[in-house]
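Many introductory courses stop at the sequence. We go one step further.
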Amino acid sequence: MKLKTISRSYESAARDSRTEVRKVHKNADPKLHPFEKAREYTRAVTAAKLDRMFAAPFIGALSEHSDGVYCMATNPKSLVSFVSGSADGEVIVWDLASKRKLWSVIAHTGFVRGLTMAADGEHFYSCGDDKRIRQWRLASDDALVAALAAAASAGSAVGSKRPRSAMVGGSTDRDDDGGEASGAEEEEGDEYSAMVAGARSGGLGRSSASAAAAGAGRGASLDVDLRPRYGAASLGRAGAGGGATSAAGAAVEPVATWSNPGGHSFLSIDHHWKEGWFATSGPGGLDVWDAQRSAPTHSFSWGADSVTCLRWNPAEHGLLASTGADRSVCLYDVRTDSVLRKTVMAMSGNSLAWNPREPFNFTVASEDSNCYTFDMRRMDSAMMVHKDHVGAVMDIAYAPTGREFVTGSYDRTIRLWAFDGGKSREIYHTKRMQRVFSVRYSGDAKYVLSGSDDTNVRIWKSNASAQLGRALPRERAKTDYNSALLKRFGHMPEVKKIAASRHVPKLVVKLKGARFEDEQRSRRKLANVRAHTAADSKEGVPDPERKRHIVGEIK
């Protein structure tokens, strides 16, 4: 006779401490678990409900601007620094981790139309209605040290209560409803100065002043030079931004200034991904500049209307794409000094963005409330039509991963899309947010930045239900498991309904219903035409959605 016994050692079954999780021995044979799929479906429904319950995408609002925010730029070498420009000509440099204003300057007279970061991450460029291009030193490390020193000195003088004048930029952080930020946010102080060293792992590099500030306690005096290193206008060009000061009190002057030889204002600017070139657009066409020269090296013009937006290709060295007021989308080659092709759309595009991981594809934000993804090798038809907005799409930006992009619209909403999805996966809105004119992703694709004409820059989570801060290993495993369940059962009706549910503003619902009725009316009309025409006639046959909004291509 044979006897089979279960033999386990005490060490493999016992816990080392009371806090340790009990070990569970499980046989993964599917024959022993016939109801596993049913149980996992129930867990998927629960995971979808929890995902919607814990969805809280809004993080905070930066309300230092006094006019509408129309352009922004993020730093390619840092995760925490970005700049924004407003309609009153002011440019503000921010620190994302602490939600602080580092310094600001009145860079232009009138609107700031464009902002872009240099490839080295140490300078940025601005252009505006005053027909000027200006180069500025970012100097975010020095400005941050000055801000922390000012906060430390103010904290030592008045104790734990910090007045409005002690805050960086002269005001407190506020949430979107106008309420004061919590005391924990105001008392970041030295914890943040130590944290910023790790946050700038790919950034500007820490100066000796930054290193001194990181170790300084609250109220300690810093025996270092805290003035930002701003040089006077160089390269023999005149002009500087009007007498603004940094957080340390030093005068902020542009490094260089260029004037438009055509005498018209600028509408957009973008810096090359690797070289020291930048390109500008305006009513006179498109110009390519070298930072070491005072005049454009290349100029392009095809048609008499304005070029509203341009972007450098992230992979092709000399390739540019632009949108124009004449409803055109053009491709330019700087190497051959020629215009490659031109596509005319039904309505004009307001902005465009290249996919950084598939650099032969780009997406256009159109005035007809849709976005169109094109392959630059075949522009007579769109690869994908992204439809969900009910107002003109004003700006678009891809995530560094290339798997999704964000759009800001005139309908006062922000939407997040999969790069190959026809419908948006998320919609963000607040009661006080007005028309959105600029959107950007952070360098790690975890956050979304938006600027609107209610003078606020808002910070959102790209994953609405993501947990902020460090998660325990068991929490990460549970999150990954829930994500896998949603991916596996996402096509099921109940899970799909829960995952797609969103609170949408009444105006958006009303406009979307009116648009649906118009589409149904058009379909009924085409169906009636087809029913009363010959079988071999092409009347009543609608054009494909991807070609319907393309007027034609000019090569």
